Every structure is written in C-alpha cells, then in structure tokens.
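Good day; I would like, with your permission, to put a structural problem before you. What I wish to show you is a protein chain and, alongside it, a tokenised description of its three-dimensional fold. Please examine both parts with care and let me know of anything in them that strikes you as inconsistent. Thank you for your consideration; the sequence and its tokens are set out here:

***
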Amino acid sequence: MASPAMSPQRMPARAIPERVAGRYRYDRLSGAWWWSPEMFTMHGLPSTSPPPATEEYLRYQHAADRARVLEAIAQACADGRAFALETCIVRSDGRERAVVLVGEPQRDAGGDVVAVEGICVDITDSRRSDSDVGRAQSLEAEVGQMRAAMASRAAIEQAKGILMLLTSCGDQVAFDLLAHISSHTHRKVRDVAEVITRSAAGHGSLPDDIRAIIRDACPPPQPVR
C-alpha cells in the first residue's frame, strides 16, 4: 500500500527554502500582478497558480500588516514613493514567515507611474535578535543593495523608452545606444539613463556630449506634405 501523502502541516521545516527571494510586478492601469516562481513557493502555492488579485494577495499578509502594505503600494502609484517593509505573511498551509517587501515605482516616458516592481525576501531565519545583530545588519545592507539595483533598472528602462520614442528604434537598439553613450562619454549606463530621464522630465538639460550622440542617432524630421 502506498504511504499516505504528507499534508502541508507535516512537511519538515527544510521544505521551505531559507532566504527565498521572489520578484513581482503590479500594473497600475490594469491592476494585474505578475509573480516569479519563487513568490509562489514563498506563499506555499503551486507555481502553476495564477497570480492573485490585490485583495487576495493581502489575505496572505498578516492582518496587522495589510493596511501598511496596501498604503505603501498606493503611495508608490500615486507619488512614486519607493518602499521597503518588514511584514509577516501567512502561507497557504498556515505557517507564518517574516519577509521584507521592497517596491520601486516604474514610470513611462512622461514620468507617470505605470507599475510597481519589487522583490520579496524571506528573512525568517535572519531576523534581528540580541545575539545576532551582525546578521541583521547584513540583511539591511542586502536590502539596500536590492533597492539600488532596482532603481538602476528602473532608470535604464525609462531611458530606453525615451530613446525609443526619439529614434523610432526597438528595445535592444535603445539599450545598445545607452551603452554606446556610456562608452563614449565615460559615464556609467545608470548615470546616462538618469541624466536622460531627468532631462525628459524637465529637471535639467542634457550634457553637450550626450546631446550630440543622441542628435546623431535621431532620424531627420520628415517634410510635411
């Protein structure tokens, strides 16, 4: 006789991977979510499940944290405020896990927030304790690095969109152009992207060397017929 299937409550603790990190994206216009496979694992859901709607996602948050999470997402959409929250999620099997939820607003070429992208990291085994301050500091540094990486990605994506509009090129060509500008002006790609997005939003002018390269890449205006 086959042995009975092990219920989620009887699964050994090692079945939940330590320091699982999942990615997500919330689309402001449609209200739809995208989850990476790790997000489903973290919440005890099959990877074939559809991403939950906002109301359903909040039910996986501990009751004491739901309002904070909803407010952070709403503010990110409203005024572009990034966030990093430590919350408690309740898995589908009833187990509670401590996580850090990081969110970075994503803007279109006009500067409007169109989505929130982020990372959720399971920190249950790395929470601060009197005897483990060093691990907590390490975690804080890691979250800071994740936020910096996400901010860099956001700036690059925005700059690519601007260059696609200016030059009528595709996604890969826009990134290649960013890399070309970076190489020829001796600036980091992220720094080039931030200069372009700030200029497009009216918060400064482009340096002459970047302006010259973009001008050469832009197609000439078509005559009016």
